[in-house]
Each structure stands twice: as structure tokens, then as C-alpha cells.
Amino acid sequence: MASTAAAAAAAAMVPKVALRSGNATPMPAVGMGTASFPLVPEATKNAVLAAIEVGYRHFDTASMYGTEKPLGEAVAEAVRRGLLQSREELFVTSKLWCTQNHPDLVLPSLRETLKNLQMEYLDLYLIHWPVSIKPMPITSRNKKEDAVPFDVEGVWRAMEECQRLGLAKAIGVSNFTTRHLDKLLAVATIPPAVNQVELNPAWQQRTLRAYCAEKGIHVAAYSPLGGQNWDGTGRNAVLESDALAGIAKARGGVAMDI
Ligand SMILES: NC(=O)c1ccc[n+]([C@@H]2O[C@H](COP(=O)([O-])OP(=O)(O)OC[C@H]3O[C@@H](n4cnc5c(N)ncnc54)[C@H](OP(=O)(O)O)[C@@H]3O)[C@@H](O)[C@H]2O)c1
């Protein structure tokens, strides 16, 4: 088991990204995702506790993953055990699901997320996808015929309100293309701080990264090691890429050693 001091030293080694939003928490550049299908809440809770013990300070969840509650329980237990002084040592992201992607559902959805997490605020709240599905209980298996037009201006106004209320220190988006961002930036009073997208050596998002760099939007990568075989082909283009092999070799055969 790592000591608290060793965990703090490991956490301090991770570079932090300054998000442009006024009151935003600096974002540790390495974070742990909590999406897990099928979900085993106890396993998520234990994984988060183990991650905190070795120095992770950035966690990513979403209302759709069902992992807000086990993440919140793990953080509360980490504070009880003295692994953390308080939740403020962490950077916590959650996301608005497509069925919640309606102007009047944004604030209630964030309040529900915070209740699940047992937290007063999020460090980052994201629109999960630029897609709206008619309101219904959350599931990842939505039908095409349930899609409705996405009111980007109305939803973003509500996201801005979340930040103004201090319930989210920064707001952003996920899975937005440059065209989606064009539409959003045309109506935004507070521009998105982050766009979280799939990004790895086999899918480098060059156009999107150049666009976001110009607009001051931080690009966060998901599936940096290639995801969980979503296409069922078993291809391993990322883990077998020269880029990752080079990093592992340079680091003595260990890609991440915190
Ligand atoms: N915004 C979005 O729409 C979105 C979408 C997807 C993911 N995310 C976020 O990103 C997080 C990460 O997602 P992910 O797709 O990268 O899933 P992941 O489960 O973190 O990793 C994907 C696969 O990479 C391999 N892997 C992970 N760590 C490894 C290591 N240290 N050494 C060797 N192989 C390793 C694993 O392969 P094995 O199966 O062989 O163990 C794993 O199945 C999610 O939990 C979620 O928080 C966001």
C-alpha cells in the first residue's frame, strides 16, 4: 500500500492544465475514467480508492455510467481514512447525458449528479454528446427514433447558469466536432473550457486540435490507449503503435509509473 506522502509526491509529478474559465481548478493532465460495462459499483469504488492511494487526483464520470455514486463513496471514504484532506484536492468531471440534454433539465441533472457524488460542486461539467434524446430514464441503449433537435443555445445558457451558481467551476463539451463548436461559440457567453474526445495515436484529431488551440479550448483525450474493443474486431492499433512502444521503452518498459 502506498503511503500518503508517496501518493502526494506522485500526484505532484502530474502536470496541471490551467483551464481558461475564471475560477477553474487546474486540471491534472492524467485522470482515471470510471466507465465500466457491466457496472460493478463495489469494484469501481475499490478501483478509485486504489487510484487515490497511488496518487490519482483527477476522476471522470458521467450520469450515464452509473459510477457517480461509487466514485462519491470512494472519495468520502478516502477523506475518512485520511488519504485525502478533503474533496478539494481532486478534480472531478461529470457529464450531462443525451436524455438530459434539454434546457430545463440541465440544472436538475447537475443537482442529481452532485447528490450522487456527495459533493457541493464539480470541477468540470460537460455536455456528453451533441445529441438530444427525449427525456426518459438513463440508458446507453437509446433508439434513433427517440432523437430530437439539440437546442444548443438553450442548453448552453443552462450550463452557463451552472457555472455562475458555482455548482460547476468550469463547463465544457464532449464529442463536439468543429462544426458543433462553431455553432456553440456563436451563442456562448462563457466559452467551453474543454472538449473531451477520443484521441490516441491511431486517431489524432489534427483538425479539431488546431481549431481548439486557436479558440483556447483544452482538448482532453478519452480512450488514449484505444478503448474497450467497441467495434468487436479485437484490433489493437493503439497499444501496438510505435508511439506507445517508444514511450514505454523510454520509460523503462512502463508506460505510466505513478
Ligand atoms: N466522453 C466520452 O464520450 C467518453 C467515451 C469513452 C470513454 N470516456 C472516458 O474515458 C475513460 C477511459 O476510457 P477508455 O475507453 O480508455 O477505457 P479504459 O478501460 O480506461 O481502457 C481501454 C482499454 O485499454 C487497456 N488498458 C488500459 N490501461 C492499460 C494499461 N495501463 N496497460 C495496458 N492496457 C491498458 C485495457 O485493455 P484490457 O481490456 O486488455 O484490460 C482497456 O480495456 C472512461 O472510463 C470514461 O471516463 C469518455
TrEMBL record:
Q: Where is the NADP-dependent oxidoreductase domain?
A: 30-228
Q: Where is the active site?
A: 65
Coiled-coil annotated residue ranges, if any: none
The record lists substrate as bound by: 128
- Return one GO MF term: oxidoreductase activity
At the top level of its lineage, which domain of life is listed? Answer: Eukaryota
Site-annotated residues for Lowers pKa of active site Tyr: 95
Looking up InterPro entries in the UniProt record yields: AKR, Aldo/ket_reductase_CS, NAD(P)_OxRdtase_dom_sf, NADP_OxRdtase_dom
> Known PANTHER family for this protein?
ALDO/KETO REDUCTASE (PTHR11732)
What is the protein named? NADP-dependent oxidoreductase domain-containing protein
